[in-house]
Write a structure and sequence with these properties.
This protein is an alpha+beta fold. It contains four helices and twelve strands; from the N terminus they run E-E-E-E-E-E-H-H-E-E-E-E-H-H-E-E.
């Protein structure tokens, strides 16, 4: 039931994920952070079984930090995405397959903001916007209509609010909260005001007969 979404703006990448951990018909918790910071300017979003997400996310994060220590600099979003894809592809050919879908957003000093879509079969694509999970069924049409290249941060937030509201209106599962971050030349930043306009309107009271 995970939902991940990302948008590329003029000089940033805006990403969001729900915070619910759901198993079968039970919500186990409502404050799960499904993002991992890979470096100062790279963030990875994961969806899938919690064990797979934790194990694969830790493996990727620690190996990229080791590479940064050895080389003296952090890998670019493009290099990080290809390392993630390679690691996932290798796991597919082993007995320790990871059932994870991912979004990787980051900022490259030479090429600007980047967003990569990676699925559980290790397919990789650079995209202007992306989503994973059941929520993607309800949000791609919204992004197709409202997304445009070179958006400002406020414009991207507005598109994201529309997508979250669409999921909350049409998806049968209630996703109570979202974790939202954006990445730009100064690093990874939290977004705290995205929830202000995405609560569903209260249902009108039915008049007594």
């Amino acid at each position: 039931m995970d939902f991940l979404i990302g948008l590329v703006g003029k000089d940033f990448v805006l990403v969001a994920s729900d915070t619910a951990q759901i198993r079968s018909v039970v919500r186990m918790k409502s404050d799960l952070d499904k993002m991992i910071t890979l470096s100062d300017k790279n963030v990875l979003l994961l969806s899938g079984p919690v064990g797979d997400c934790n194990n694969f996310g830790d493996y990727v994060q620690k190996n990229l930090k080791l590479n940064a220590m050895r080389n003296g600099f952090a890998q670019s979003p493009h290099a990080s995405a290809n390392f993630v894809r390679k690691s996932l592809a290798e796991s597919l050919r082993s007995r320790e397959r990871y059932e994870v879908n991912l979004l990787l957003g980051g900022f490259d000093e030479h090429e600007g903001p980047k967003l990569y879509w990676i699925d559980h079969l290790a397919a990789l694509a650079e995209v202007p916007y992306a989503a994973h999970g059941y929520g993607s069924y309800f949000t791609f049409a919204t992004m197709d209509r409202h997304y445009r290249k070179g958006m400002t941060l406020d414009e991207a937030k507005d598109v994201l609010r529309k997508c979250i509201l669409e999921v909350r209106t049409r998806f049968i599962v209630n996703l109570p909260a979202f974790k939202v971050r954006y990445v730009d030349k100064d690093g990874v930043h939290e977004v705290l005001d995205i929830e202000d306009e995405t609560t569903m309107p209260a249902a009108a009271a039915v008049p007594a007969q």
